[in-house]
Give the backbone structure.
Amino acid sequence: MRILIGLLLVLAMTSYAGAQKAAAAEQIFVNGDIYPGFPLGFVWASAFEPLPKFAEHVQAIAVSSGKIIAVGTNAEIQKLKGPHTQVIDLGGHFAMPGFNDAHTHLASAGAEKLNVDLVGVKSLDEMKQRIAARVKTAAPGEWIKGAGWDHTLWAEQKTPTREDIDSVTADHPAIFTRVDGHIAIANSAALKAAAITAQSADPHGGEIDRDAKGEPTGILRETAMQLVFSKVPPPTAAQRRRALELALEDAARSGITSAQDFSDWEDFLTFEQMQKEGKLTLRISEWLPFDEPIEQLEKERAHHPASDPMLHTGMLKGFMDGSLGSRTAALLAPYSDDPKNSGIPRYEQEPLNQKAIERAKAGFQLGFHAIGDRGARMALEAFALAEQQSPKRDFRFRIEHAQVIAPEDFKKFKDLGVIASMQPNHLLTDMNWAESRIGPERAKYSYAWKKFMDEGVPLAFGTDYPVEPITPFRGLYCAVTRKNEAGTKEYFPEQKLNIHQAIAAYTTGSAYAQFAENEKGEMRPGMLADLVVLDRDITKVAPEELLKTRVLRTVVGGKTVYAAQ
């Protein structure tokens, strides 16, 4: 691993150069304040004081066939202008490598926009009002769906019941997912459609909440949600397409040029059609479900060229546990504010290990959602056994979220080469209650970006969109401040990063997590021409100014996919 990091650093530093003799460029970007980014090995090893020579800003870049062919001064790059070259004047604005969101759910995000959007509702009454408004326009018997509610934002902080939802849904079956996607509230009609009664057993890896009489309350946790969702009619092709278009628009507006996504296979096929039409505006690495039969996984992997830089399938995603907000994250010891509960593991260890071994032998990258320390330890054990029993290769296994880690397990990440794929924006919400959930000792090692980096563990940042907005600037702000957006609450500030480290985790680190560090994450010759133009130099402004950052232009492969009015 150290040899690999050293090679990456040397290659990145030696590839940096001014404009060089080349054919006429297809696009040139001039009059910019262009931040080139950092190679991954440098990020892990440096505090960036002072900035190295190779990281100095440049004025202009030249692009051909979707890749950067030269960087340098305006005068140097203008020499590559031909009769058909498109010239884009950046107007002196700050530009940088496009953001690579390492963890998204694009289809879910788009669907939220077409269904009942419950993000930010401040009370149960407000939630019911939004649902009631949708019911007024629904066809008879139509399912009412939505997502985004978060009871921890409400004064009473109580989860809703089916009776609450029944009061505004009439005869419509309805189900609404919490913001984290790990619990949902279903009304009585939806429970009836799924045949969920007092006699129903909890499914493996899930729970049906019950009242004092043993009747279902409507709250379904983890795998229990699927009992109802399996009865919901799938979206039409037109609805699916529109949902994805809305999500891509969000990404482009936010400066996202690449995303590592977990949506359905039908969504991947829709992205594929959009690519054929020349309408795909985001580079997508689509994850496949870890639990699918391996024959199906191999068939889906072979469906589309893995070498396509615009669209391909990527890692296999599995779920070890749930979330802290829902108290379903699997912990080694009980929740501090719920002493009889240690969360819900999705797997038993031995079956998990065998699946991991089989899929690693087949050459798949594995990534496991694990928020609790028990969930992370289960994932690490499976990774270790998979590595031992597979041909030696660059596995780049990942743990998604990695929010609560036992102190002794950080070294296991490093020893196994496991990537910590994290979403710093989650802390903006979670810091309101995280310490009460897990207590002060465990909280010291939660959301521990600096600890991971100090241990030499690769960091890849994302947003978990739509659990959080896809804008990267909230995550950058939290990564460098560990404060809420009002600046009134701070969470274990020793885990802060500096701005260069945080940017690198959103660019180079995310590229490394998908085996693409030689293609994106930096503004250097040979890299993909993916960049974002901002209204301020985010490496120099006060941290609170990060939250006000506006994207002026988003460029993918040299082509502008978003320009602010």
Summary: Residues 1-21 have pLDDT under 50 and may be disordered. The radius of gyration is 24 Å. Residues 156 and 382 are 40 Å apart (CA to CA). The chain is about 35% helix and 20% strand.
